[in-house]
Amino acid sequence: MAVTMEKLTDLLNMDLEYSAAIVHKSRSGNMTGAAYRDIIKELKIHANEEVQHAMILSDQIDYLGGSPSVNVGKIQASKDNNEMLQQYLDGEEDAIKRYKMRIEQSEQLKEFALAQQLRNILATEQEHAMDLKQALGK
Ligand SMILES: [Fe+2]
Ligand SMILES: [Fe+2]
């Protein structure tokens, strides 16, 4: 299905809200326990990378003539460490699917710089998913 610039900026705004939600969640840092020390460290790095994603998405939305959202998406917060990691992993896998679509859509519109930025974001999300899978013993 053909995508319009307006539709694409709306979708990018949803990606932006999602990225912001992850940052807020990871910054709340309610995960504890020695067994989780490595992934807690990784999650702090992920949160900083999500900040970068949010900034890149905001700049791109702005450049494309949209107005970057200031909303934060839905925040899932289990009290159980493994459940929380699984929620993060589900979120990363959802992000990977969304960014793959967004790359195709930006190429349809010949927005190649946007596609390149999205490819970089996608590569980082795949790393996030791998870190979480490792922490979950998958
Ligand atoms: Fe992200
Ligand atoms: Fe991520």
**How much helical structure, as a percent, in the residues?**
over 70%
Order of helices and strands: HHHH
The value of Rg in angstroms is 15 Å
Which molecules are bound in this entry? fe (ii) ion
Q: Which outline best applies?
A: elongated
Count of β-strands: 0
Strand content: under 5%
The helix-and-strand class reads mainly alpha
Stretches where pLDDT is under 50 for at least 5 consecutive residues are none
Task: Write down the overall mean pLDDT.
Answer: 91
Distance between the termini: 35 Å
**Largest beta sheet, briefly?**
none
Tally of DSSP helical segments: 4
Tell me the layout of helices and strands.
Layout: H1 5-28, H2 37-63, H3 81-108, H4 112-135
Bound molecules: fe (ii) ion (FE2) (2 copies).
Essential attributes:
138 residues, mainly alpha, 4 helices, 75% helix, binds fe (ii) ion
